[in-house]
Amino acid sequence: MQILLPTDFSNNAFNAIKYAFKLFENEKCTFHLLNTYTPIIYDYDFQMNVGGGLGKVRDVIRNNSVDQLEELKLKLEKDYASEGHSIETISSFNTFTDEVKALVDELNIDLIVMGTKGATGLKEVLFGSNTIHIIKKRVCPVMAIPDSYFFEAPKDILFPTDYKIDYTEKQLAILKTIARLHNSTTHILHVQHHRELNELETDNQQKLETHLDTFKKAFYHVQDKEIPVAIDEFQKDHYIQLLLMINNKHSFFENLFFKPVIHQIGFHLTTPFLVIPSKM
Predict the structure, then answer these.
(1) Cβ contacts of residue 25 below 8 Å, gap of 6+?
(2) What is the pLDDT of residues 194-226, one digit of tens each?
(3) Is it true that domain 2-145 has CATH number 3.40.50.620?
(4) What does residue 4 show for φ and ψ, rounded to 5 degrees?
(5) Structural domain boundaries in the chain
(6) Across the chain, which distance is largest between two alpha carbons, in Å?
(7) Do domains 2-145 and 156-277 have the same CATH topology?
(8) Tens digits of per-residue pLDDT, 98-123?
(9) Exposure of 29 by Cβ count < 10 A (0-12 exposed, 13-18 middle, 19+ buried)?
(10) CATH for the stretch 156-277
(11) Among 59, 62, 54, which residue's Cα sits nearest to residue 91?
């Protein structure tokens, strides 16, 4: 597996990186540690044509990035890496989202694991802006780890879905890898609104069941509740260590996480959250 681990060297980022190493402790993986530093200095230097002063500042920032990445790599190799793990470092003079998108293609990244907030993240924000941008780009599965979350093996995975997705093997590959490694049960939650499943939704449900044929799973149907409420209530009744969704454009996912209503209903991310693009 090829796993991308962005870091701004904050505690939150380090916590997410530790989670990734523990989650895939028994899987052969290459972990790519990524730190990007802003090109704003370069743009300003170019526009103002100020000798080499700002260029020297840029060099200091680059060297600091490289040194911290190497220090982080050594710590991970000493304390967290398992046999079959290898670690690469990438220090990039680029915007975060552009660099991530390029690396996903260049390195055939299977998963991005990142903290929910950066070093200056506000407690009231569900996700940091970088996490939101990468999820909305739909370039790769993204796993967001809540601030200070203590690792627990994902024995129980909650998978809310509207059955409007033509499930594919590639979409579900990361779920199946995690379920295989941790002998997980996938709890598939569907919320119905005043009607039964139509033919397309029924077909998709059967496809999903076929894809997960050899894995432990359970299906649930909830009537006439808002998705965030159904998720929240399910988590109160069942101990879940991972929340998973497929990000289908124009589906309930976008309404769930990218509108202010989410803060009004008291939905809070307390478990790792895996978001898979509908088009892989």
Answers:
(1) 82
(2) 678 889 989 999 999 999 999 999 999 888 777
(3) yes
(4) -100, 130
(5) 2-145, 156-277
(6) 69
(7) yes
(8) 999 999 999 999 999 998 764 444 44
(9) buried
(10) 3.40.50.620
(11) 62
